[in-house]
Amino acid sequence: MIQKFKFKKEVNLSDSINLIPMINLVFLLLIFFLLTGIIQKKEDPSILIPESDQGMKKDNYSSNLTIQVNENGILKLNDKIISNKDLNTLKIEGRDMLILNIDKNVKIKKTNEIFKNIKSAGFEKIFINVSDKDASN
């Protein structure tokens, strides 16, 4: 006896709705509008920047010392050669910041000695500028 089996009807994928092209189109439109739209920060006129009546504007560079150190470790202050020991006496009233222009070829041992003497002089801020060329030029 031969039995007939009924097979389920196979679902053809081409009969269903394919959403991938529609998703691609939506993303392309989103990218288009993001790139072509103008995004500007709106300024709020109601925000006022506060001004201090207690502080005074300070010219940071006019009252500071600038020391140049060349590749041989020679220190210069206003084109006058000074010794490493003289750094202890550089602290002048009203000057709390030092600008140190140092050559990149100065040995680390020499640099540490300079920093030690600057620290003992009482400077609170040290700005370091490392240059490729000799600082005396």
**What is the radius of gyration?**
36 Å
Major pleated sheet: 5 strands, mixed
What kind of assembly state do the chains in view correspond to?
A: single chain
- What's the count of strands? 5
| Strand and helix order | HEEEEHE
The proportion of residues in beta strands is 15-25%
**Classification by helices and strands:** alpha/beta
Termini gap: 111 Å
Physical arrangement of strands within the biggest beta sheet: 3-2-1-4-5
- Mean pLDDT across the residues is 77
Query: Into which percent range does the helicity of residues fall?
Result: 10-25%
Low-confidence sequence ranges: none
Please state the overall shape, judged from the principal axes of the Cα atoms. elongated
Put simply, the count of helices is: 2
Question: In words, what does this structure look like?
Answer:
There is one protein chain. The chain has helices spanning 20-36, 108-121; strands at 65-69, 75-77, 80-82, 97-103, 125-131. It has a five-stranded mixed sheet, with no helix packed on it. It is elongated and about 115 Å long. Helices cover 23% and strands 18% of the residues. The model has no long low-confidence stretch (mean pLDDT 77). The chain is an alpha/beta fold and 137 residues long. The chain has a domain at 65-131.
Based on the model shown, name its key terms:
5-stranded mixed β-sheet, single chain, elongated, alpha/beta
What is the topology?
Blueprint: H1 20-36, E1 65-69, E2 75-77, E3 80-82, E4 97-103, H2 108-121, E5 125-131
Parallel strand pairs: 1-4, 4-5
Antiparallel strand pairs: 1-2, 2-3
